[in-house]
Amino acid sequence: MPARLSDAFKSHPLNLQLKHPDFSSLQELPDSYAWSQNDDQYPSSPGSFGAEQDSVPVIDLSDPNALKLTGHACRTWGVFQVTNHGIPSKLLDDIESAGRSLFSLPVQQKLKAARSPDGISGYGFARISSFFQKLMWSEGFTIVGSPLDHFRQLWPQDYNKFCNIIEEYEKEMKKLAGRLMWLMLGSLGISKEDVKWAGPKGDFRDASAALQLNSYPACPDPDRAMGLAAHTDSTLLTILYQNNTSGLQVLREGTRWVTVPPLPGALVVNVGDLIHILSNGLYPSVLHQAVVNRSRHRLSIAYLYGPPDSVQISPLSKLLGPSQPPLYRPITWNEYLGTKAKHFNKALSSVRLCAPLNALVDVSDHNSVKVG
Ligand SMILES: C=C1C[C@]23C[C@@]1(O)CC[C@H]2[C@@]12CCC[C@@](C)(C(=O)O1)[C@H]2[C@@H]3C(=O)O
Ligand SMILES: O=C(O)CCC(=O)C(=O)O
Ligand SMILES: [Fe+2]
Question: Please, which domain of life does this record's source organism belong to (predicted)?
Answer without folding.
Answer: Eukaryota
